[in-house]
Design goal:
160 residues, alpha+beta, 6-stranded antiparallel beta sheet
Length: 160
Amino acid sequence: MVTWTFRFHKKIALAVLGGLAAATVTAVALSTPWAGAVSVLGRGTSTAAATNEERVEFIAARGLEVEQVPISKMEVTIPAEFDSIYVGYNQIQQSQGFDLEKYRGRTVTKYSYAVKAPQGQEPRMVASLLVYEDRVIGADLSARELGGMIRALEGETAEP
């Protein structure tokens, strides 16, 4: 017959309970829709986008100067199933600390701003923000012409 005996130590029990509580809080925080915004916030930039000023400021923090009034505002639905194009687009988002996987099937607002061009030239680039519940959940920089490049507001160029 085998007998097990344990000695109860309050300090060890409290440390274990504290560790479990911290792990639970972390798991809950990472499972929220805002988890993708954490790394963006870590760069010192807020993802708040309730007002036009906050959206323009978000873009300006990435070194782009845009017209103060959006050229378009539309409701878009993130697809429930990603095709190869959306997988590539989400990779662009992930490179910036966002992840659209968390928003599958949800309707978001897309704001597009003309990037200011040199004097006398037509704007050729558009900065777009995807906003859900007054927070930026995605952003890109794209050419205005059909089939043009699309990339992160910061980072590498990618073809759609």
